[in-house]
Design brief:
The chain has 181 residues and is α+β, with helices and mostly antiparallel strands. The chain is built from six helices and six strands, in the order H-E-E-H-H-E-E-H-E-E-H-H. It has one domain: Heat Shock Protein 90. The chain has a six-stranded mixed beta sheet. The chain starts with a helix and ends with a helix. One of its GO terms (molecular function) is ATP binding.
Amino acid sequence: MKELALHILDVAENSVRAEATEIKISIIEDTVVDILEIIIEDNGIGMDREFLDKVLDPFVTTRTTRKVGLGLSLFKAAAQQCGGDLTINSKKGEGTKVRAIFQHMHIDRVPLGNITDTIIALILADEKIDIKYQHIYNNNKFCFDTTEIKKILQGLPITNVEVISWIKEHLKEGLKELVKY
């Protein structure tokens, strides 16, 4: 994939299919130690040990529409190509945690890409799922949580066009401020 945000979206879409009610996305960039860490965790149905042992095989998928599931294996390959790795922890009935680490300045690391559109796509995929997004760049931190926004909205759907437009601008501004220093 041409950007890491698409890998994040792919993994988070797995969380949606796994009936998660909460998806947490954390991106930690530390340019001093040259690390980029991406963590996606959910409270979905999780995987049993047998399936977890096979999940990185591109020919293993839970989808019925196709017989190939390349997402996790491509994400792992992208991390390994950049001096990192990908791990998956999951427990049946408790959820899944995917953690990818990259050498931040590695010449082969694709850009993070449009994380704003990734978050918007997840909100629009299922408004009942709570999205918690945290992005740390060196010592600066930006947090976004749909549960807080839903409280403020007092019943107005989070998928309302004006709300989505505000969220998009809020994310863009927050991320711009994050890397400003």
